[in-house]
Write a structure and sequence with these properties.
By secondary structure, the chain is an alpha/beta fold. The protein has a domain at about 100-125 and about 230-410: Rossmann fold (3-Layer(aba) Sandwich). It has helices spanning about 40-45, 50-60, 75-80, 100-110, 125-145, 160-170, 185-195, 205-220, 230-235, 235-245, 260-275, 295-300, 330-340, 350-360, 365-380, 405-410, 430-445; strands at about 10-15, 20, 35-40, 100, 110-115, 150-155, 175-180, 195-200, 220-225, 255, 285-290, 340-345, 390-395. Helix 11 links the parallel strand 10 and strand 11 (about 285-290). It starts with 8 loop residues before the first strand and ends with a helix.
Amino acid sequence: MASDPKYQAWFESLSNPSERYSLDEIVYTDQGGGLLQVVHDVQALKRHSADEWKQIFDNRARRNDWPYGSGVWGKKEWVLPGVSDENVVSMYEGHTNLFWAERYGRELGLENLWIKLCGNSHTGSFKDLGMTVLVSQVKEMIAQGVDIPAVACASTGDTSAALAAYAAAASIPAVVFLPRGKISLAQLIQPVSNGAIVFALDTDFDGCMEIVKQVSERDGIYLANSMNSLRIEGQKTVGIEIVEQFGWEVPDWIVIPGGNLGNVSALAKGLDLLLELGLIDRKPRICVGQAQAANPLYLAYQKDFEVFEPIAARQTVASAIQIGNPVSRDKAIDALRRYDGVVEQASEAEIMEACAAADRTGLFNCPHTGVALAAMQKLLARGVIKKSDRVVVVSTAHGLKFTDFKRNYHEMNLEDMAPAHANPPIDLPARYDDVRDRMLREIDLRFGS
């Protein structure tokens, strides 16, 4: 099936709207070095009414009519209308659970708390949403004869997993650059298993990013990091999907962790389109949570974004957002300004305690979600978030990718911290009387009145 010519999209400079490029061109920045964005022909999209778009999306959701069953490709006209269906590379990503955290919210005094479980995806993170779009466009370009020897990314884990999986499905070579010793084993093994060429470099994420930009510029390798605006087109469906799951009602707050900050601008971009096409009539507020060890956006927020200074990110359990020089900072700042946004930070102890407390209510959070949860709790304590507000926390990855930090927490193997919710296994001899006595004592201790 061919692409739909009724709908058009292109790259456009953020600072100069007259500077445009075809999506088939290999270009990542404008002539001044600024980031690009993908822009859609909104007038063409307005040929359908808001109610018609809602019906179209609802009819496609979770069906097997290729490729519309995907949470991303079910909104193809809003995402990447020019790619042919046969070149779509999809794992039916999206449609992740919007979990009502009733017990956890009740314990916090928050009446309407929801967790958007983006980690319930093919490679275990929200990065699948953007990578399906980027790899599909690359496959389309290769089919048209464009010479692309490989796709590559710098990563602190999740991006590399998504790129490796989608590139493998498309039979496209993938190259990933990881900071050696700074990602979890679960994250490292994903691109290895999917056949990517994996380089573990003696640097941090920002150093890996410099390398991938060089191989892109000098060797024609296609850049797959979020400075490539195609990624944002897939990731923007998170905001659209949240609203859709609430019956096209807008929550009061969306809280999201921020590292390289592409997810922040993507969230706003999806909401922008909902507003422009009339599917919603108000905006949520956005909160970005950052680890205190990697908090350049938070520091800039403290100065009303008048100045942004990159930092040397320190080690944090939230390793995927251990980024001191985020490439999407300008887009993120613009989004926060337009969505009455705030930025909050979380210490290492606050991250781990937020994860552990939420896990005790049935969740299983990655540390980056812990950053967002801790930020949300701080806003709630200050009264910025009201107890009656409907709040959505975006959980960016599955906790199973980060079991080391959970094991260290529950085994109380942490420096300068006494875990409040530690739950180590209880070692006992295999004798019924010993087990019964300890079991009854623990039940009474933990759940007794």
